Amino acid sequence: MECPKEKTNLANCNCTYEPCVRKGKCCDCVTYHRQKGQLPACYFPSEAEKTYNRSISYFLELNR
Ligand code: SF4
After folding, report:
1. Helix (H, G, I), strand (E, B) or coil at 42
2. What's the pTM value of the predicted model, to 2 decimals?
3. Under 8 Å CB-to-CB from 41, ≥6 apart: which residues?
4. How far is the CA of 8 from the centre of ligand 1 (A)?
5. Domains in the chain: boundaries
């Protein structure tokens, strides 16, 4: 299904993992990471995002 907000979402997406098919499809992105006990890239600042560590513990560590 096409997402009507995909272009807007992509403009606000900081994810650098280029091969991902969920980029711009925030519903799929959130669902994917939630199922893995993680958070999407947009919860992390740029340098942290590039580590691809999407764990909640890493998020908490960065936001102590
Ligand atoms: S945060 Fe994860 S699911 Fe979302 S676009 Fe990046 S790699 Fe894909």
Report:
1. helix
2. 0.91
3. 13, 14, 15, 16, 17, 29, 49, 54
4. 16
5. 6-62
Using most ligand atoms within 8 A of CB, pick from 6, 16, 29, 59 the residue to mutate for ligand 1. Answer: 29
- CB of 50 sitting under 6 A from ligand 1: no
At residue 4, what is the residue type?
Answer: P
Q: Is 40 in the pocket of ligand 1 (CB under 6 A)?
A: yes
Along the 64 residues of the chain, how does pLDDT read in single tens digits? 789 999 999 999 999 999 999 999 999 999 999 999 999 999 999 999 999 999 999 999 999 9
